[in-house]
Design goal:
It is a single chain. This protein is mainly alpha-helical and 315 residues long. The protein has 15 helices and no strands.
Length: 315
């Protein structure tokens, strides 16, 4: 029990430190950039694309940082701007589908799945989801409240005040993320030490079959759903080797996971931004199921036709 708690706290401290090293400087840099011509030029350049999906030009910064670095860098940029609840929700749904592209796509390529296929699907889903939310949802016009992070930047005069404001905002952002990460890591450690992940894997076997995959893919699916692609990369690759998961099943599993992975962490992490988080999870999960089932159906049909041609040719 004590060892589990110790390992969980140690993991929480390690993850918080790793993420804090990104969120803290990114928040400071973005805050300072708001008072320079650099950010204004970049915003004007991408404004037409952002307006198409219902976002202001400055929303490009969280999207770029979230995709090139990770989800936490994107959040660090979000809290540096004043967005409405709807705009933050659109950013959240886009970053949920598409974040940390370089690392997570590298994981996909290690398992034999095309880097371009996975990245292209995630980016496409992000923009489609943003456009749908923009066209369907009429609410969310009030200004988003980032927990106890003050977003107002009025009456800032001089570089000293600007830098101090950025450091204060960055520190509060790191604290709020840590308050989420520590209990999350503790829960995950208990799940691992008690063997509940394997039990959940057994429960998920019918679900993997529904998605068009064999039962031996269930542990890989559970790992990605709970830990995520980046943190669970080693476990996933090891499961592929030990469980003998086929390339088809791994492709379907990754297709599901790049759409819906780390469901607890990637959902809870948006709570400090003051948006409804349950719709994020529901949209990601339904999209992942429909997309995976559709691809599996088409893939199975193509395999059946191929086998029939082979039989006919042999006959």
């Amino acid at each position: 029990m004590r060892q589990t708690v110790f390992r969980g706290l140690q993991q929480g401290a390690q993850v918080s430190w790793t993420l804090g090293k990104i969120v803290f400087p990114v928040t400071i840099i973005v805050t300072i950039l708001q008072f320079t011509p650099v950010l204004d030029w970049f915003i004007r350049f991408v404004s037409p694309l952002m307006e198409f999906i219902g976002l202001p030009g400055e929303a490009a910064m969280p999207l770029v940082l979230g995709n090139t670095l990770n989800l936490y860098a994107g959040i660090g940029a979000i809290v540096s701007f004043d967005f409405t609840v709807k705009e933050v929700f659109i950013l959240a749904i886009m970053l949920s589908f598409s974040h940390n592209l370089f690392i997570e796509s590298a994981v996909a390529s290690r398992t034999g799945v095309s880097w371009w296929l996975i990245s292209g699907i995630r980016i496409a889903l992000a923009f489609i989801a943003a456009l749908v939310v923009h066209l369907v949802w009429d609410g969310g016009a009030s200004e988003a409240q980032y927990g106890f992070i003050a977003s107002s930047q009025a009456d800032l005069t001089g570089w000293g005040e600007i830098i101090w404001y950025g450091m204060k905002t960055a520190l509060l952002a790191v604290i709020q993320l840590s308050l989420v990460i520590f209990p999350l890591m503790l829960v995950m450690q208990f799940f691992r030490d008690l063997g509940w992940l394997q039990k959940i894997s057994n429960i998920f076997q019918p679900f993997t079959k529904l998605l068009g995959m064999r039962e031996n893919t269930s542990f890989t699916l559970v790992t990605g759903l709970t830990i995520g692609l980046a943190f669970g990369a080693g476990v996933m690759i090891q499961a592929v080797e030990e469980d003998g998961v086929s390339k088809k099943d791994m492709t379907l599993a990754l297709l599901f996971l790049v759409t819906c992975h780390a469901v607890v962490e990637d959902t809870v992490i948006f709570i400090p931004l003051g948006i409804p988080v349950w719709p994020l999870l529901v949209i990601r999960f339904i999209t992942a199921v429909l997309l995976t089932v559709a691809v599996a159906f088409v893939w199975n049909r193509a395999e059946k036709k191929k086998r029939r041609r082979a039989i006919v040719q042999e006959y």
